[in-house]
Design a protein that fits this description.
alpha/beta; Rossmann fold; 6-stranded mixed beta sheet; 4-stranded antiparallel beta sheet; disordered C terminus; nucleotide-binding
Length: 239
Amino acid sequence: MKDNTQRDSIVEAIGLSRRFGKCYAVKEASFVVHAGEVFGFLGEQGAGKTTLLGLLLGLLWPTAGMVRIFGEAVTPGHTAPLRHVGSTIGMPSLLSPFSVRDHFLLLAHLYPDIAQTRIDELLELVGLQQDAHQKVRYLSAAQKQRLLFGLALFHSPKLLILDEPTLYLESAGKQEFRQLLQRLARQGITIILGGHLPQEMARLCDRIAMLQKGHIVAQGTISELQQKGLLPISDFEEG
């Protein structure tokens, strides 16, 4: 595990809440994510993970509390820090008639300063080089997930926010993805994940915040949460 004591804070949430009508999807969530860390939100469906990630991305605005990214408060009037964030959440639907490469070419129009060699680099990185000319309508769910991840990396973000990133990947693909996340973290990229499978999240993350009904009920390293009896040790045995 990484030592966070001397590392910069990339994301800081203070008392973050989001209410829909009379119901809170997220309530009084506070946490810090450090540079080069893989930090996960673990919870069942409806626990508030996607809402919380949406708040970090500015897709939703909090009812109360605040978010700082790269040391700057993110508000409707100040979203500049989000330019350095890549995400697979809230992205436009993939375009069925277009190929994998076409999607990168469309994105390249938004970033004219990025060399098009970046496209081939990312196709290889996410394992889609053999499918570059395949139309999206013919891709499997796992291939689409790989494509979305590659698009999120296009502008070399400093922070990645991903929801259920291994949901459709086969066993070998999950192992490959874990190694890729570790490599990106070593390069200084900070990564935030949402997921519902304890075993998978434990293998991906340095630290986890556990969500129940919109509340963070515990957070810490895997070993810390195990020692408190909040995560069964058997869930994390390699099989």
